[in-house]
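Forgive a beginner's question, but would it be possible to get a protein, spelled out as residues, together with the matching C-alpha cells, please?
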Amino acid sequence: MPSVIVLDTSLSMCRPVQMPDVTESVQFRNLAVHGLTCLLDFMNINCKLEFAALMSFSSFRETLVPFTRDFESIKTALTQPEYNERSRISKALEGVQSLVMEEWGAGVPCQVVMVTDGVIGPEIESLKSDIENHYTVTEKGIEDSTFPLPFPFPCKLHIVCIANSTDPYLQASLPVYQKLIDISGGGGQVFIPEGPVSFKSVQAMFLKLSELYYKPFHGVLHCGTLTSNVALSPPPEPFCKARDFELVKAEMSNDIVICGFISIGDVSSPPSHSRHLILPLQSSKGKYMLLVSPSLLPTSVGGRGGLVVRSRPRDRRVAGSKPDSTEDPPCMGPVAR
C-alpha cells in the first residue's frame, strides 16, 4: 500500500521546544524529522516492497521525493525543505490527490501521513467553512467537487501532531483534523504524544503509528505435509460489509492452505477482495521451505497454471499426523497468479 508523507513546513514548525533534559536548541521540525526517520526505518525493515513519497506544504506545496522504495532518499530530503509562512492544509490535500492519481490511479489503496505541529493558523476559519459547506452539499445528494476530500481512491488519513495535549492551538485544531479524517472515509486517526513533547514521546508516537498501520502480515503456507513461513504484501485488511440485517466482518487467518491447482484459462479473471504477493520467510527451525515456482504449475490446459489457496482456521492437529477423514472438504478460494 503506497504511502504519502506530508510534512508541514510553515514557520511555526521552526519554533523552539522547551525540554528540561536537553540543553541544545530544539525546534518542532527537528522532532518531526526524528519521528519520520523512525517511521521510515520501520518501513525499511518491515515494508521493503512498499512505495513512499514525500511532500511538503506551507503557503504552497512541493513534491520533494516522488514514489520510491529508496527510503534513505526520503530521510535525506527531510532535512532539506524550505520553511515558509502559514500552512494551507487544503492545498496539501489537493497535492496528495494529484500525486496519487497520476502515479497509481483510483484503484490502489494508499495511506497519507500528515505531520504538523497542530497550528492551522489563519486558514482555520475558512477550512471550517469549507467542511460545513461540504456536509451541506453532500446531504442534498450532490457531489462536492470543490473540496479535496474524500479522495477518489481508498485512503487512510493519519494526522500526526507534534504538540503538547494542552496546547491551545492544538485544542482548536483537533475537531478540524477529526472531521477531515471522517470525510476521508477510509479510516485513520489523529496521533498526539503521550506526556510532554520530547524526542522519546515523539518516537513512541510514531512507533505506535507503525505498529498499528504498517505491521507486516506473517503466516504459514500449507501444501499437503509441507509448510513454509510466508509474508503477504501488502498486508491484508479486515473485511467488513454491511448487509440488510447484519454487519459481516472477517479477518485473514494465519494459516493459508493450497487446496489444489487449476488452469488460469478455466478461471479467467476471478473476482477478489484484494490481491497479495506471497513471499517466503526464513524458517525459524532451519528445516524445509515450500517454494512455489511457476514452472511447477500444471500447463495441460491453456498453457498456464493457477494456484488455488484458501485461508483456514488454525490447524490444531499434531504436526505429522494424518488428516481427519471427517474434515470438511477444502473450499475454493482466491487464485494467486
Q: What stands out?
A: Confidence is low (pLDDT under 50) at residues 285-308, 312-337. The longest strand covers residues 255-263.
